[in-house]
Specification:
Length: 674
Amino acid sequence: MNYQVDDSIREDYLNEAGEIVNQLGEQLVRLERQPDDRELLDSIFRAFHTIKGGAGFLDIAPLVDCCHCAEEVFDALRRKEGELDADIMDAILHALDVVTAMLEALRAGSEPQPAPPALLDQLRGFVRQTGGAGPKQAPAQSAGTEGGGGDVTDDEFENMLAEALEGDSGTGESSELDVAGKNEESDEITEDEFEALLDQMQGQGEEVSATESDARVEDKAAAPEMSRTESDSEDEITEAEFEALLDELQQAGSGQQETPAPDPVQPEQNNEAQKAAPRVQTPTTVAESTVRVDVSRLDTVMNLVGELVLVRNRLTNLGAQLKNEELQNAVGNLDLVTADLQMGVMQTRMQPIGKVFSRFPRLTRDLARNLNKEIELTMQGEDTDLDKNLVEALADPLVHLVRNAMDHGIESPGEREAKGKPRAGHVELAAAQEGDHIVITIRDDGAGIDADALRRKAVAKGLVSNEVAAKLERHECFDLMLLPGLSSRDEVSEVSGRGVGMDVVKTRIGELNGTIDIQSEPDQGTTFRVRVPLTLAILPALMVQLGRRRYAFPLSHVVEVFFLEPDAVRQVEGRDVVMVRDKPLPLVFLDRLMQLGDEGQDDNSGYVVVIQVGSDAVGFVTDDVLGQEEVVIKPLGTLLQGLTGFAGATITGDGYIALIMDVNGLMKRVGRLR
C-alpha cells in the first residue's frame, strides 16, 4: 500500500468505491436477466476498471488483481467471446464480495487479504476458454518510472498512438491508419479507443498487449489530427502540450471536433491555450456542484438547530404570556425561519432508501438458488428520502424481513403449481412518505400465516396462557411472531433460522420510534408494514401534566385523547378498563405507575391518552393534557440510562424538564405488549 498518499485522497477513493460496489450488486443481477444489454455490460466493466484504477494509484495490489480478473471477464463478454452462465456469475459475485471485504479492511486501517487463488483461476479460466490470450499482468510500475524520469517523449507518444490504433490488423483485413489524421473518415474515435489510449499513457499504468488493443478497439479508426508545438527539448513534450493532445483526443472521442479547414491558423501557442480552456472550465463547474461533508459536522449543525428549536419554543411561550403584539410578530417570524432551517438541515442529512434496497436483488438471487425456488422481486419508491442514521439502522431489520418472506412465505415451484399459482413467487418491496413518517412495505404472494397454528405454538412454548390465547383476535395472533423463539415454521432453516431475529427486528424498529404491522391471508401472502419517522433528532410530542411533572408521548403513537369520568372505570379480571365504542380499553394510571404518591388526582378522573403499538392499545390516565410541541430528544444521564419506559428528556417551552416516554418499553412495563 502506498502510505505516502494523503488520507483525504484515500477516503475519497473509499467513498467512491463504496458507492460503485453498492450499485454493482444490483447491476450484476440485472445483467444475468439481460445478458445482451450492451450498456449494462459497459457500465459494469467501467465500474471494475474504476475501482482497479484507484487501487493501482494507492498501490493496493490484491484489490488490483481481483478487479483486473473481473474486468477481463466483462471485456470478453463485451467482445461476445463467451456467454454468461450461472457459474461464472457466482464467481463474479464472489469477486464482488471479496472486493467489498477489501474495501472494508482498508476503511478499518488494516491490510486487505488477497482474493482466493481458486477464484482468480476460475475467472482467468473463463477468459482463456473464450479464445483470448488470458488476462494481462496487473498494473506495475513502468520502466520509465523506476528510472526516475517518467516523462513521455514525442516519439514514445506517437508510437503508443500508432500501436493502440492498429485496430483489426491481425484479422486479415487491410487497415491503413493515418496517424496524422489526413483521412476524413477517421476523425472520430470511440470511447473504448479513448480509454485504451489513456490506459497506455498512464505512467503507472499497465502495459497493453496487442491482444488487448484488438479487444478494445473494435472498429477501424485513425488518430485525430494533432498539431505539434516546438519544445525547448528535442526529446520531451511539455505538460501543456500533453494536455492539449489529450483535449484533442477527448473531443474526437465525443464527436465534437470537426476536420480543420485549410484556412490559415493562428500561432500554435494560442491554439493550445484555446483548446485547453474548455477542459479547465468544465471540471471546475462540476466539482463545485457537490461537496462532501463529514457526517459529524452535519450532526453538530442538527444539534444546534435543536437548541434553536428550544429557544423558539421558549420565546413563543413568553410572547403568549406577555401579550405583546410586536413580540408575538417577531416570534412568529422566528418560528417560520426556524422551521425552514430545520427542514433544510434535515434534507442535508437525507439519503434515498434505495441505498438499502440496492442489496435486495443480489439477496433475492442468492436465496432463490439456495432454496431452489423461483422468486421475482419488484421495488418501488427507491428515491424516498429519510435520515441517514435511519437508512443505516433499517438495513438489518429489512434484510431479515425480506429473507423471512422468501424463506417462510414463498412456496417451492411444485407447491405453487399444485395450488394453481405461477411457478415464480413474487416479493414486493415499497417505500413511501406519509406525512412526517416513512412507510416501508414487504409483501409476498406466498402461503400466508396460519393464525391458529401460531396461537397453539405460543401456548405450547409457554409464551401466553390458554386464556389469553383464546381471547386473541386473528390479526392479534400475527404479533405472536415477534415473540422470542416463535416461528411460523416447524423445520429449521439455514436461511432464516427458527424464529430467531423477529423479536430483534421489533426491538430495532421500536428503538427508531417506529412500528411494525403484520397482515396475512392463507395462500394469498403476508404483508409487513414498517413505519418510522423521517428523523430522530426532533420529535413531535403530546405534552401531559401529572402533578408537578411533565411527560411527553411521541405523537406517532397517540390514537386519541378523552376525559375520563370517575364512575366510568370498570374492573375486568382485576384490571381497570373503560368501555370505548363497546370495547374494553385497559387503563393505566400514570401516578401509580411512576409511584408518585399524592402528586396525582385523588379520584379516578383525568384525561386518557390512548397509546397504540401494533394491535395493542392502552389508555394512560394523566391529570392534564398541555398540547402538542416539537421536542428535542436529550439523552438521559448515566444514572438514569437503562430505565424501562423512558427514551430521553427535553426542555419545554416554559422552561420545565419533561421525560420523553418510550412507548414500547412502557407497554412492556405494564404487561400489555406481549
